[in-house]
Amino acid sequence: MPYQPSSGDYDHIALAELAGPRTRFVAATHVHHVYGGDMNPLRIRRAVGPDAVICLDAAQSVGHLPVSVADLDVDFVVFSGHKALALPGTGAVWARQARGPDCAPGGWSGTPNTAGIASLAAALDWLDATGVDRIERWTVALAARLTEGLRHLDAYEVLGCPLSLAGEKTDSVRVSLHAYNTPEEIDRLLSVLAGLQ
């Protein structure tokens, strides 16, 4: 899909120009894997029209912020378990009733990843009990602390924010935050970065 390098957002105008009656399937991401921005599935739907099947990769959103499939005008939502605090090797696929029956699921051979599946169930239960909205508030506060600290370090630039000069660069580092991170860890990172200037 076409995107805008300065922000990492999809170029919905270019997407609308590319999409047409032959467009059958669109794969898109819900939250940008580097910048953390919502890629706006509703604008994607408007750009490609009502008939194209949209599969939304929600690996960066499920477990990090509230996700309501009822509010997403997409046909499939997929996510990986390890991004939602489960063991690697698991995930889930949600299909809208109108499209799901048209796509028969494939089977698997061999022994299922029983431990991974159990860990995914436990992780989803924990996320539900903790409240993904609370997790989102926590990580947003940590990100704000980090961004504010980086603002005082001249050698660094926060990519993907309105003040950045460019998009993703080869000499960049992504800081991934979740419920298990602390303000003290942010301060320690800032201290290390300050020492590297």
Structure at a glance:
This protein is α/β, with parallel strands linked by helices and 197 residues long. It has five helices and four strands.
What does this structure look like?
34% of the residues lie in helices and 10% in strands. The chain is α/β, with parallel strands linked by helices and 197 residues long. It has a four-stranded mixed sheet, with helices on one face. Helix 1 packs parallel to helix 2 (41-48).
Write the layout of secondary structure elements.
Layout: H1 12-18, E1 25-29, H2 41-48, E2 53-57, E3 76-80, E4 91-95, H3 114-130, H4 132-151, H5 183-196
Parallel strand pairs: 1-2, 2-3
Antiparallel strand pairs: 3-4
Main attributes of the structure:
Aspartate Aminotransferase, domain 2, 4-stranded mixed sheet, 197 residues, 5 helices, alpha/beta, 4 strands
